[in-house]
Specification:
7 helices, homodimer, 7 strands
Chain lengths: 254, 254
């Protein structure tokens, strides 16, 4: 979806594209950061992150909820990265594609901070999630008819949810080091009756969601089992992220 | 855990046992039911349940949250069933054990409704969840030392989460029909450092939780992957429950 802001399951009216997207985000000309706190965050990341501002390059409600659940003190900033200009077909695999998008989103926010002369250490994180079935990447439905079609196709089948995550750690003098990874979760759908699909689509939940469902909402009714990280299906693989971030900071600590 | 009320991850002071349990529940001498609504519940269950009062024979905050997420209009009632009097060793498998407990919890609430002369159609659901590792069933830790020990043992290993669910459908003249089933999810823990475990235990989240973690909270940091239903790990396998309940009502509809 082309958007003036990077978005994932958001809904507001975008003047550039005319799309309806959730939760309006007011972009301030100068970014303000949340105060440090890390009240509930677990050690040792709590100590390793003490010197950094954490920035989520996404306004996805799901991703923000996962970061909040982990006690991360962060600012969520929309990325100006133009996803629509990136052709899926230019990549060998969906994993390469989501990794590129995650890096693009994070890099755009890093650049924005530089332009605003926001100094100090920061960790900017970008992410992108796609659903992959036999036929390839399944897009986000923007109409009820398309949502019906997507859910009918996924019914009784197994698909993969792939999230790419990019981490860019900036020191006082620019980019210091980075890392990126991909997390894959297999999801098995129950066989869904037309009545069930129609009822689910009528709630509006499937619209603008990758794969036309939200496993964290009413969509939990549809999912028989998963193999992998549940939070990856929601939109952000938190366990692997914490492991990678901890290793990255330990390896590069001075 | 012996308790004057059936409880799962609750905390209040029980005068019979001295245990500290979460969320006090006031038991009324005459049970009052929620008004029917099913605003967000999906079809066809929405229509099949129109004639029934839904009763969750549990005061677990997690189970109540899952039912609310599914749009089920229900009353949560504590069960007087005495879990502590049931010996695990009397059962061939953990599955047999949780099924027995789930049935016991549901049956006690059905009896309570009868005693109170609560007439009308109702569906009473009991559930019990255990964690099973190589050494057998892992209990709920009531002290921080025990939580440290449990998490240290589960670190880097795979364990199983098993939930038994019992459904008792009552007509106007008593028990009409019932069903029960077991859901199993495999959970793989990351290798946890002592620092991480200690930090997690200090938050208090592991106390009185099966396996000493909550996958829906900070415990998500610990879980590398799962195979099966995520909501089963939280405490209630909602997908299989909806499938079984729908089949049960269709088979026995008059």
């Amino acid at each position: 979806m082309r958007s003036c802001f990077s978005s994932f399951n958001q809904r507001y009216f975008c003047k550039n594209t005319g799309h309806i997207i959730l939760n309006p985000v007011v972009v301030q000309s100068t970014t303000r950061f949340a105060e440090p706190g890390f009240a509930m965050m677990l050690s040792p990341l709590k100590e390793l992150l003490r010197e950094y501002r954490m920035v989520l390059a996404s306004t996805s409600a799901q991703r923000k909820a996962i970061w909040q659940q982990m006690g991360i003190n962060f600012s969520a900033l929309p990325s100006s990265f133009d996803e629509e200009s990136v052709q899926q077909t230019a990549f060998k695999t969906p994993s390469d594609y989501v990794c590129y998008l995650a890096n693009g989103k994070a890099s755009a926010v890093v650049q924005k901070l530089k332009d605003e002369r926001n100094t100090g250490r920061s960790i900017v994180v970008g992410a992108d999630t796609v659903i992959v079935a036999e036929t390839g990447i399944i897009g986000k439905p923007h109409t009820k008819d398309k949502a019906m079609e997507t859910l009918g196709y996924l019914s009784g089948k197994t698909h993969r949810v792939i999230t790419g995550v990019a981490i860019i750690v900036s020191g006082d003098t620019g980019v210091s080091f980075d890392d990126s990874f991909v997390s894959t979760t297999e999801v098995v759908f129950s066989s869904l009756s037309k009545e069930l699909i129609q009822s689910y689509v009528e709630t509006g939940e499937p619209l603008n969601k990758a794969g036309a469902y939200g496993i964290q909402g009413l969509g939990s009714r549809l999912v028989e089992s998963i193999t992998g990280d549940y939070y990856n299906v929601v939109g952000f693989p938190i366990n692997q992220f914490c492991e990678r971030l901890e290793a990255l900071l330990r390896t590069n600590s001075t």
